[in-house]
Amino acid sequence: MTEKGKKCNIPKSGGKWSKVEEKIFFAGENEQTIDDKNRIILPAKYRRQLGKKMMLTKGLEKCLYIFPKNQWENFLENLINKYGEMLKDARLLRRYFAANSEILKIDSQNRILIPKKYKEFANIKKVIVIAGILNRVEVWAKDEWEKEMELSEKKAVSAAEALGKNDYTV
Q1: How far apart are CA 81 and CA 15, in angstroms?
Q2: What is the pLDDT of residue 22?
């Protein structure tokens, strides 16, 4: 019984618990530097959702994508399920992402190592931007990020209108 004689429904101990899958959502940006050993510190706001192991791949622009393991699997499955094996462009994209990926592990100081070939691909020198982009985190060289954001600001309205013509909801 609770206050004022109201009955309280508390489950009995020993009952089965079901695991509820947490929705992944990354947003915001963080500027920092990459150290001399090519390590970056993952911002606290992304760490829990990324987990101890995550997938790194080359992005479509000059950036890197970092996915939590389950989101990486979803990403590749969507490429397969949506486009199948018969389309050459679909096979090309799967090869691009899968062949250019590797598992990253976070160290005890919350850092990940960006391998040299990925650093070079993204034109990363010293200052980087780590941005949350819904189901993934992107790593950009600061100057590349600034160019991308300038372009995004110029094109956002026309892009929304173009997508709206194709019945996409924004």
Answers
A1: 37
A2: 59
For 45, residues 6+ apart whose C-beta sits below 8 A from its C-beta are 28, 30, 132
Cα separation, 154 vs 170, in Å, equals 17
What helix, strand, coil percent values describe the chain, rounded to 5? 40, 25, 35
Distances (CA, A) of 77 to 80, 85, 97: 5, 12, 12
Burial of 148: CB neighbours in 10 Å, binned 0-12, 13-18, 19+ = middle
Sequence letter at residue 134: L
- Tens of pLDDT, residue by residue over 130-169, are 999 999 999 999 999 999 999 988 888 888 888 787 665 5
Report which residue type is found at 56: L
Length, in residues, of the chain: 170
